[in-house]
Amino acid sequence: MVTQELFGTTRGGVPVYRFCIENASGASVSVMNYGCTIQAIRVPDRNGTLTDVCLGYRTLAEYEQNNGYLGAVVGRHGNRIEKGIFQLNGTEYHLAVNDGPNHLHGGICGFDKRVWDASIEGQSVMFHRLSPDGEEGYPGNLDVRVTYTFTDDNRLLLQYRAETDADTVVNLTNHCYFNLSGEGKGTIRNHILRIPAGSFTENDADCLPTGAVLSVEGTPFDFRGSKEIGRDMDVDCPQLRNGKGYDHNFILDGGDGEKVAAELYSPDTGIAMTVRTTMPGVQFYSGNVLDGPVGKSGVPYETNMGLCLETQYFPNAMSCPHFPSPVLHKGELYAHDTSFTFSCK
Q: Is 175 in the active site?
């Protein structure tokens, strides 16, 4: 069952709607057409109590005022582009510099700050917008669709589709902050995380990949066997210092096609989450600069109270030609899927 309600009106007077997708067991996901944002995910804990595991706000005004990208689809290019400059087909494109010296998550007014068209399709909600040529400096008219489906087995599927009338760059992801102990229920440092990745991309002091690929072996970045997130987070390591914690792109094992990107578990609630994706990388961000915005339950979100697992092409790929390319050519279909499946242990 999918229901729709008015969530609020933007500062510019545009109505924003929230859609609740409820499955047969009563678990549900709430999404809204402002930024294609996931506003709530309510799944059962080990006692059968529905628990909201997604950080978010109570009002639209709070989403407009805060810039943490909570639950939103970011684009055209999620993550960082060096100095906001890339070359494509012999032309140099200049984007906004909005994260230190670099471009981040699509710019000043990226996809996360746009009101999308929305339609209910069975047990899904499909969001659509046309990003015009030159928006935030990107070339080509980009026709984008993001579909959210929540199934009876507590699987949240995100399907990203895009087409362009001129070559451009596209790297879409969702910036949901998860806390499987419950939104506002303390730190994620005790969560158990597995990331099946034998390597990750080195960051400079601005969290921009340098192009170097590092092995996780013998480092705090080895999550291949599952471990508590906080176990190695305070180790004196240049890469952890650069990110103020984990804020790194992991190169997923498994080659092309759908693969496991991460497995997450909260011992507090017994809630587990498996992330699968067709993307080659996942950015694990441990919520290092959450700085006190008040969340849905009235609790301020502080450092490490939520984490992101952003499936993606590698950041800064336009400056690192050995990375998988985020270029979408005219006539091609951008088609990537990511799913989050919730269960209990």
A: yes
